[in-house]
What does this fold into?
Amino acid sequence: MEKKKKFIIIIIILLIFLGLMIFTFANPKDGEVEEKGQGKDTEEKVDKQDDNEDESSEDLDSDDENQEGVTNTVVGNSNVNTQSVTDDSYDKALKAVIEAENKIDSQSYDKAKELVDKVTDSSKKKELQDRLDVVKDEIDIKGLVETLKSKTYSAANREELDSARDYRIDEEILDKVAGLDNADLKDELNKVLDELSTLLDDEDKPEVSVDENYKIVVEDQNDYMITVKRNDGVAEEVGKDYILSEDGIYTITVVDAAFNETTITYIKDTTAPEISLNGDSTIYIEAGLEEYEEKYATVTDNIDETITNLAPVKINYTKPDGTFGGEVEKVDSTKPGTYKVVYEYTDNAGNK
It folds into this structure.
């Protein structure tokens, strides 16, 4: 009886073992294929999967070149995309701020301001904003100087130039430029201001004269314009080497670039006056019987006024025997002899 029980137990154990073996072969592990007909198909699938993985890896490599902070990892048949974004807003803003500091223009400032506003770190953002505030002040001061330059050089009269002078004072341009920390910009703007000051600070009238060669001579620190009007003629603009070629009365006006004006009258007179007797050049009278009547003389000049009653300057007396009797005050009608009445005239230019 005992032997029969043992035999039955052994049979049961063998059946359980046989069942486990059948279950194991009926359910193979992942990746294992027992049937021959499936081997080729599996290899093709594996090769195709490898190709897909290579293509996927190439795409990911390409994406890496165009996307900062992105890492792609291929594991087996799975494509795992791990993305790490770096905040580079500060670096971009810093670069733009430096460019604005170098160029000092509105376009660069606006670009930098836009990027600074995007900086997330508040302390770094304040640092960049403070630097931009300095740039903004420099742009404003630079603009003031440019406006002053335009007002000065476009001035068409004294009133408009005075307006430029007032603008320089009202906007405190000289003080603002002097207060700049940017040494290069300060030097640049001071050079412009020095050039403008030759006009804005010039309130001295030109000095005008005519030299011995009748050339107009002007002394002035700025450029100037000369106009000349002869007698009652029309005024004309002349060059700086202009020479008064003809006799006449000239009105010479010089206006410099700061609208300071000087006008002089110059007389060029190189022609001697003409004297003509109002009576005959030789007069005969009977001594003691007739009286000498002084007729005087007339003077005409190209510049000076005409004189019709020019008196003699001297009278020379010659005795009847031909000897010189000396200079006398008047013709003595009772005393025989020859009287030479002399008329002379010197015009205002010294011609006689």
Observations:
- Residues 114 and 188 are 28 Å apart (CA to CA).
- Residues 30-85 have pLDDT under 50 and may be disordered.
- The helical segments are 2-26, 39-66, 89-103, 106-116, 122-153, 158-170, 173-178, 183-200.
- The longest strand covers residues 248-256.
